[in-house]
Amino acid sequence: MHDLQARRLVPALLLLVLSGAAPAQVSTQPLPEPPPPDLAPRDSARQTGIVTFGQPGQQQFIVRSFEPDPGASAAYRISFEALDTDGDGFLGRAEAAAHPILHGEFAAVDVDGDGRLDRRELAGWLR
Question: Which residue ranges make up each domain of the chain?
Fold first, then answer.
């Protein structure tokens, strides 16, 4: 059976070569390197932390944190008195809804989980 297949394949290959058709050639090129991300902090940014992950002698990862951009931190400024509409000295979820960013981060800021924010809980969030 293999002899029959070989007898059919040889004339087909011979016809291909004589006709001048060449087998397709594929060339590949590596993808271009993407530009490196701009990880450099602003000149005015103060580094607030650094953590290194990994074992000595192996690949290590360094994570640095910097103070937020002053323009971005404006979104985290609030007037406690203006949001404390009932004057009880706390901000409930309904009162925090007036400030979309605070409302979205309410659960993270509510450290004691009592459903309301006091000035102490907001101290690290506010600037």
Answer: 41-67, 77-127
Which CATH superfamily groups domain 77-127?
EF-hand (1.10.238.10)
pTM: 0.43
**76 contacts 127 by C-beta, under 8 angstroms:** yes
Please write the tens of the pLDDT for every residue from 97-124. 998 888 888 898 898 999 999 988 887 6
- Residue 115 makes CB contacts below 8 A (sequence gap 6+) with 92, 93
- Return the ∠ at Cα 102 (arms to 95 and 104), rounded to 5°: 105
Identity of residue 87: G
Range scoring the smallest mean pLDDT among 24-38, 49-63, 80-94: 24-38
